[in-house]
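Q: I'm teaching a short session on how sequence maps to structure, and I want students to see two examples side by side rather than one. Could you give me a first protein with its sequence written out and its structure tokens following it? Keep the formatting plain so it prints cleanly on a handout.
A: Of course. Example one:
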Amino acid sequence: MYNMGMDILGIKGSGLTRWFWLFVLMGLVVSLTSCGGGEEEVAPEGAEGTGIIPAVEAVEARFGRLPLEERLSGIVRSQNQVEVVSRITALTDQVFVQNGDPVEKGDLLVKLSDREYREQLRQAEANLRIANARLRQAEVLLEEERRTSTRQKQLFDRGLLSDVDLEQTEAALASAEAGFDLAEAQVEQAEATVEERKENLAQTEIRSPVRGTVGNRNVEPGMQVSPGSSLFTVGDLNDATVTVNLTERMLSYIEVGQTVQVVSDAMEDTFLEGAVSRISPFLGEGNFSTEAEIDLANTSGVLIPGMFVTVDIFYGESEQATIIPLSAIYRHPRTGITGVYVSSTFGTETPLPIQTDTDDPGPLSMPTDVEFRPVQVVAKGRESAGVTGIQSGEWVVTVGQNLLIGGEGRARIRPLTWERMMSLQRLQPSDLLKNVMESRTSPDNSL
């Protein structure tokens, strides 16, 4: 979601560069909201530098385990999703469904012109009758030749028939048997042709192979279709399957049954939870990857077949570490060092400000010491990271780091709960600007 918002504002880049610009924007939010009430806070004499003491937002670092997850891109398809195609060449007479229509298995979707196929069936049935007549004729001839052969053998045994005459009789019998076999084969061939013509005629009525909803309609009355022409897609939209690609390395730790969260821009701040349902045991040639499938209930209809989604597969937990929001991690533009701005005195020497209105972002503290401290990221999740270099209980700046680059000594801090910080991280930069402008123009703004 961050990336989309940054692209909207023309902010390009990747990794920490994009986070840097997000922090700049979020720092602007803090600056605007903190000075909305009027007077500026001026650094007391003796403090490092003179001028405005920056206002920032911070959360308290935690100690715990971070869920290990693999973030992948997936594509949605409905369960039992099938493509309805034509198996014959014909003109379309009628189309009975529109996109979005629910259908049951066997419902008539399209009627194709059947005049040509009815004529072909009539001819095939006529040929079958001819073949049956020839078979009966061959059968009569065979029976007659068998009787003749029996009589001729009796005469030959009595010495009343020559060898030549007997051989001629046996040849005639063999010819009759061959004629009968040929007639039988012709009947079978004619019967197969009739069945084929019946099947072709049946294909002029295209029916739904499954129960579901119609989509991707690609046929109109009068249109000629041919074998393989895609006419519709039908699938059960109440149940969806998300397919993701797994590399050979991922197969060592991703397994069937592991928890999965699926998110997309269309879901806003919500997500769908499921589990890895199936993993193909075969790696593709060339790319050495395989597919995993996640079955999800889609009764709300938020998953649309064909849409791309983000899939987080949770496969364990990290070792215990200090947990901070991702937005607290900051790459110092002057030194290039990755770290966080920390206040060790906030909440101890400098008391936390008292918040009276839970709907208000909260007041700022008195000026307190802030320092930049390098950290090492040991585990990274979707919204938070496990780091070394700071202690749990210390307050880390999550918004406004860019305002501390000049002085890096003191700041006024607005404490945030983890829940509020996570919601801010999910906002796009354009949403942040909108919130600021609404706050600035609100008659109730008293920050």
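Q: Perfect. Now a second example for contrast.
A: Example two:
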Amino acid sequence: MNATLISYGFASVAFVALSAMAVSRRGANRTGMFMAASVISALWAGLAALDAYHGQHISSLTAITELLRDAAWLYFLLDLVNQRQGMQPKTMSILRVAGYVMLAYCALLIVRIVADSLSIFPGLVDLPILDTLLGGAVSRVILAVLGMALVEQLFRSTRSEDRWGIKYLCFGLGGMLVYDFYLYSDAMLFQHIDAEIWAGRGIVNALSVPLIAISAKRNPNWDLRVTVSRRLFFHTAALLGAGVYLLIMAGAGYYIRTFGGEWSSILQAAFLFGAFVILLSVLFSGTLRARVRVFLSKHFFSYTYDYRDEWLNFTRILSQGDPGEQLCTRAIQAVAGLVESQSGALWLTREPHRFTRIVSWNLHHADGEEPVDGALAEFLTQREWVINLDEYRSQPELYEGLQLPAWINAIPDAWLLAPLLVRDKLIGFMIIGRSLGKIPFNWEVSDLIKTAARQAAANLAQMEAAEALTVARQFESFNRMAAFVVHDLKNLIAQQSLLVSNAGKYKHNPEFVDDMISTVESSVARMDRLLQQLKGGQPAVLTEQKIELGGLLSEIIGEKHVYRLKPVLQIDVASIEVNADHERLKRVLGHILQNALEATPYDGHIEVHLSLQDDDAVIDITDTGCGMDDAFIRERLFRPFDSTKGSGMGIGAYECREYILELGGRIDVTSTPGQGTTFNIHIPAENTRRETGNLTQGEIA
């Protein structure tokens, strides 16, 4: 049985079923157009099957019906695309006119077929241009390319959440159009329609019908929410333009082959290769792409910019890469990219009283400096304008007497000057080079550059603040180290001063002399450690080790022998060890005891009590001194650089608490004004050995 007859018979039956489905859902205008396209497709497939039955290749009536089928589907697609949101009324009118032109083209093709059949207008038909554009294979390729472009634009401009209702229509019609392109491209190449490819066309159309039917069921009225995308519109225009260009070049190549004589094949190959190279050069030309994008935005959209895409791209450029100087370059690239520029330079107040150039990106001779209190800075701060340097040179009166520095006017490619404002404070400015796309400067460009420059300024200010914070932290670390060193020196001086004050009274006492020598040795060792720390410029390296607290407390109390008041040490557990740095823990506990000695009168009492509670070593240092109120303990006791002593540094108690917290412990303070204070210190204990009974300082000695 004839394969072509079966193929187109199936296609006719499928389109009849699709037409019946469309009739049952008749309503909106688009539904009527869909029904018309389905009916004409069924008629075309039936006529093609009838041609196959009679052994006829392609009749004129079948060819005319095929053109009507193509025109109906293309107009239906164009009507769907015309639903897009965000288009100017002028653009929608242009699309409607394009639909009419397409219908007129199909009408001319029908006239060509009728003229060939009736042998009328022979001179008109034989014109080379009309013969090419209205030729059977070439004209069908043009229609297929137009259809594929419309399908691609419809699919990609439909919102992702709405594509479920349109994707099968795009797949079905797209498959039919791609097969038509394949069929007629082959016919153009070999100058005849391949019978096997033609026979398979009916099956392809029949298989496409169920896909179209799915979308028809999901869209009874074909009321789609289609949004326009400038990027996709540009891509589609580029694709369509490239397709038309290749068709024209192919036609020109055909004429070269036909009329070129002996060199026709060589000339055709050279011509087509040259045409392809020119196409690639055009497609990869940044300047041409920019100008085409500006042209399409200007004539087909209400606004020049797709602000969503522009802002996403702007944010992406600013946020990528490393911070620091690269952010300055990225800020220029992000702002300049909005106007299709590939050059710029940035000035910031890195030095007092003047703006200095931080970075230049492809902008030559941008080396000047500007005072922060100059006329330019005052103008930018007050007006917040984006200065068009070309407009300034031709109409300086528009800028209210502003006198730009000579070095700015000397930059050959400078175009726009944008202020960098943060909370109405000028932190710098940016000069942008000329646009590759020759974008006209208007209110929209000015507002966009001004807004983008503010955002870039915020990022740059954040970068400057982060760098300043890093430097401040480095100074803070150094100052903290210096404060602790000064604090230790103060304690050493106080200890030595006490020795000197008692030397006149006890210098003939051998025990006092021995204690004095021991104290001086300890002081020398501590000062040597401080000197090594200062030489290194870094805090001392802490070496944690197991420390037996009873021995450490005895050592600390022993060094306080120069005071008339003698602290009493009471130990409940013979051996309690903690893991800590020996010198730092000794300094911390010694400071608390030192404060107790200074706050307690000679007839008072100080007790140091060591015990074990659960897994913590507990040290209680209790005195009967002047005491503190709760507000002082809560708000000032552990605040750094807050001291009640005239010569104090105010960091001793702060260091005590910080180190105890580092060890995983805590400090609790209870005090009553006029009665005394107790420091309750908890430190996680290591190995312990409990013994009954209490040991006093005298017993340990």
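Q: What should students look for in example two?
A: Point them to this: Residues 443-506 form the longest helix (64 residues). Also worth mentioning: The chain has a mean pLDDT of 78.
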